[in-house]
Input
Amino acid sequence: MGLGLGWRNASTILPIAHEIGDLLLGFSTAYFLWFLVLYLAKLAVRPTVIFDDMKRAPARAGVAASAMCMMLLAAALLPLGVSVPQVWWSGVILQIAASAVVCWSLWREPAATRRFSPFQYLTFVGPIVGPIAGIPLGYVWQSIVLTYAALVAHVVISLGLTLRLGKTRPPEAMRPSLVIFLSPNCLFAISFGLLGVEGGFWGFYWFSNAVALLLLALTPWLIRGGWSPVWASFTFPLTAFLQMQVMAMQKGAGDIALFGVIATLLIATPLVLGIAYRFTLEWVSGELAEKSGAAEA
Output
């Protein structure tokens, strides 16, 4: 969904058809709603299955990602004006609920097993997605609250994760999850840009560029473990980076942002679509549930 928004927004600054973004948004909306309905059906069979899923960090992130997608869906629907406020509030409430469930799950874990994880950015920093549709809808003070609440969580998780990485390195299979760190920084730039906090936008913009260059240099190390469902961690940081570069172009950043838009479109489009295709194949075969450790209803 972020890729579709990126293409649609890029069409305002590049000579590309906006229909490409609309097509991707239509596809991603159907894709998201299909899997959301399947998960709700799973909950209907056994509601407590969500607490079993919460035992694994990637599954916790998956629940939070669904809330973020709901808020992005509101942004996708803005030009159509189709029940957008209701969709946006559904995403916000779902994000809060996901955070509460994860907090409960972490509280029940033995203290020795509680660790900071990149996946926690989705759960606790996820509200930063809200302003993308919230501000155009007129929910300005609500967007300010979401932004600064997410910023507090971002600082806490980043400090905790830095201390942890100073002591231990993630196993090869989990290395792609480190890319998630790029996403909230890009989203903070976008949110501050929408709120008119120019210092916040440019600060996070340049920091995000530095992080992106570092991650690009580390790519061989990040993917050494081969394909796994954790590769989903590459998708939303790239699409958030794309949307941030588009906003920077609109604010007059010039050739650097233009290069960022074009390069990210060329990298993110095949990568995101390829990962979505691979996920679909593994879901059909049942491999995805086995690899991700998803709980059964």
About this structure: The chain has one domain: 2-292. The mean pLDDT is 90. The first helix runs from residue 2 to 10. The two ends are 28 Å apart (CA to CA).
